[in-house]
Amino acid sequence: MVLVARGEAEWTQGIRRADAVVLIGGKGGTLGTGKRAPEEGKPVFPLACTGGDADKFYIQLLNKWSKYPIPGLSKEELSRVARPTNAAILGKRSVR
């Protein structure tokens, strides 16, 4: 456990210690974390299918992909990971 002072350190210390940031759902704070992570040089993986801030950040990330690409991952690969099909979310097999 690492104790930090209230304020900016609450956001930045966790991000600085991480190799990457995964956004799941959220209402406000998650979006703030997603916006700070690239400033700290960390890739952000928003799971848009979880809704909320993760979905908002996913759309913003796609629109700014040329400025904040994720090294080793194409825009198309991100969209496959971030927005799985309903069948994948529900654990159902696709029928052909």
Short description:
By secondary structure, the protein is mostly helical. The chain contains five helices and two strands; from the N terminus they run H-E-H-E-H-H-H.
State the separation between the terminal residues, measured CA to CA.
50 Å
Helicity range of the residues?
40-55%
Radius of gyration: 15 Å
Strand content: 5-15%
Low-pLDDT parts are 92-96
- Assembly type of the chains comes to single chain
Kindly state the number of beta strands.
2
Order of strands, main sheet, comes to 1-2
The run of helices and strands is HEHEHHH
Task: Give the number of helices.
Answer: 5
Q: Briefly note the structural class of the backbone.
A: mainly alpha
**What characterizes the major β-sheet?**
2 strands, parallel
Q: What number is the mean pLDDT?
A: 85
The shape is: globular
